[in-house]
Amino acid sequence: MPLVEINAVSKQYPRRAGLRMEWQAVVRDVSFAIEPGETLGLVGESGSGKTTVARMVLGLVSASSGTVRVDGVDLGRASAREMRRLRRQMQPVFQDPYAALNPRMNVLEIVSEPFLIHGRELGFATSRAALRAKAVELLRAVGLDASALTRHPHEFSGGQRQRINIARALALRPRLLILDEPVSALDVSVAAQIVNLLRGLQREHGLTYLFISHSMPLVRYLSTRIAVMERGRLVEMGEAEELCANPREPYTRKLLAATPELPAAMGP
């Protein structure tokens, strides 16, 4: 069974047009599924509707029409208890590593926060010693060490902050990570390190990814399949290598031509 199923989903927002209100469609009749353990790359230019789709999968906004199912549960009909369970199973990693971390919290507090919120339901010990041990384990998984625990976000580089974000996202052992432009704010060499980290974590933990980007070569490198969005619509979808080698749509060819090839550190 697919882990995520999106069926004929649309999303509209009201906007003022002169003296009247009208509805603007930002996602139009989108359908796709994500199988456990795969990476679906969702690619398109800014304003194509990618992030709105991600927010609907996370349950942060509801679809205007159609259905979004995660682990077989229709998010539009899910109870508060079901949504709490599902939110432990899917975690986001957002674009801006600077804005995603609370500047007043140190790394120990940031990484262990999910355990304090959900730990008892999952059987995690929440003593100070247990939280520290878990935080150290998570930091090591993303290439950081225990010396980071007492430091605050402003003391880290952008790439290190994104590693901390990923560590926090992994805390509750989720099945699905929603990666919304996770490296677009980083320089090329640091972005290569983060993408290779994500690839390794997926192999190690059997994670499923919805990977959102405007960069077709980057999506091709990380994804099993690619879905191309243009102006709120899904215009093309297929296996990553095949779609990039033989794109059917002019818009897909435009995306391939518009973005540079990957650096050597992210080769095949």
Give the strand line-up of the largest sheet. Answer: 6-7-8-3-9-10
What best-fitting shape do the alpha-carbon axes yield?
Answer: globular
Question: Helices and strands, in N-to-C order?
Answer: EEEHEEHEHHHEHEHEEHH
How large a portion of the residues is in β-strands, by DSSP E? 25-35%
The main pleated sheet reads as: 6 strands, mixed
Q: What is the percent of helical residues?
A: 25-40%
For this structure, what is the CATH homologous superfamily?
Answer: P-loop containing nucleotide triphosphate hydrolases
Uncertain parts:
none
Give the integer mean of the pLDDT values.
91
Structural class: alpha/beta
Number of contiguous helices = 9
> How many individual β-strands?
10
Q: Could you name the CATH topology?
A: Rossmann fold
How many structural domains? 1
What integer value in Å does the Rg equal?
Answer: 19 Å
Textual characterization of the structure:
The protein is an alpha/beta fold and 268 residues long. It has a single domain (4-266), classed as Rossmann fold, CATH 3.40.50.300. 38% of the residues lie in helices and 26% in strands. The protein is built from 9 helices and 10 strands. It has helices spanning 50-57, 80-89, 107-122, 128-141, 158-170, 188-205, 216-222, 240-245, 250-258; strands at 4-17, 20-34, 39-43, 65-70, 73-74, 90-93, 176-180, 208-213, 225-230, 233-239. The strands form 2 sheets. It has a 6-stranded mixed beta sheet, with helices on both faces. A hairpin with a 2-residue loop joins strand 4 (65-70) and strand 5 (73-74). Helix 3 (107-122) packs across helix 4 (128-141), helix 3 packs parallel to helix 5 and helix 4 (128-141) packs across helix 5. It is globular. The two termini are 29 Å apart. The model has no long low-confidence stretch (mean pLDDT 91).
